[in-house]
Amino acid sequence: MAKTIVITGASDGIGAAAARRLHRDGHRVVVVGRSPEKTAAVATELGTDAHLADFARLDDVRALATALDEAYPRIDVLANNAGGIFGDPTKTVDGHEKTFQVNHLAPFLLTNLLLDKLIAARATVLQTSSVAARAFGRLDLDDLEHDRDFTPERAYGTAKLANILFTRELHRRFGEQGLAAAAFHPGVVATGFASESTSPMRHFYRSPIGRAFMTGSERGADQLVWLAESTPGTDWTPGAYYEKRRPAKRVNPQALDDALATALWDRSAALLT
């Protein structure tokens, strides 16, 4: 059955690759991106709708939610794929550290603004997380934005850890109402990831040696496409974090903390009021 699938961060990389595959499979794909030129190019190629939003501006996220709610009678899949690792600590116009806002607060807000529509459709909500959650993530509720110990890697890893905890809590709160959620690591993908960062990861992603160990965007999109098209509860377990189409065997211990997941949800909601 064809689905209406909204993909953020779909103007490039695995988001664009997933949009192309899902479109070929007959789904109605809604392309969301930050760059007007890149977003329009992907949408024109696929003959589908495009919406613009910069997740470093929460008013853009609110406007996006309104536009999506008005344009589509139902949304079957919301893929929160937009994100990235950035450079020195930078506050957005909303007063939050950019890495934390773009990777966690913005998709948290978008999902919550669309929650009634998603529940009505018994939709799937996907979070593009990262193995960086295990390698670098350390979530402190009293310093979510790493004001005391910021590094680009630590901020990114913590935001990706927040994606997993958000998924866990989304399932706990709304799973019985038919909403399904999953987070996943797409692999180390050869894209423009880290291009805006001062992190050493930028040099790794640009180096021939680094590229030799990476996979392409098509392969990186595989889990997003699989989770979007398959049946939650049958093909995969809602609330879980996936690597290579399987629940991850090794995770950050904080990712399994239900109390922390609940507390992060409440703290995130408070930051948005």
TrEMBL record:
Q: Which InterPro entries match?
A: NAD(P)-bd_dom_sf, SDR_fam
GO MF annotations in UniProt: oxidoreductase activity
UniProt keyword list: Oxidoreductase
For whether the record's keyword set contains Repeat, the answer is no
UniProt organism field: Phytomonospora endophytica
Do the record's keywords include 4Fe-4S? no
- Spell out the protein name for this chain: NAD(P)-dependent dehydrogenase (Short-subunit alcohol dehydrogenase family)
- Among the Pfam families in the record, one is adh_short
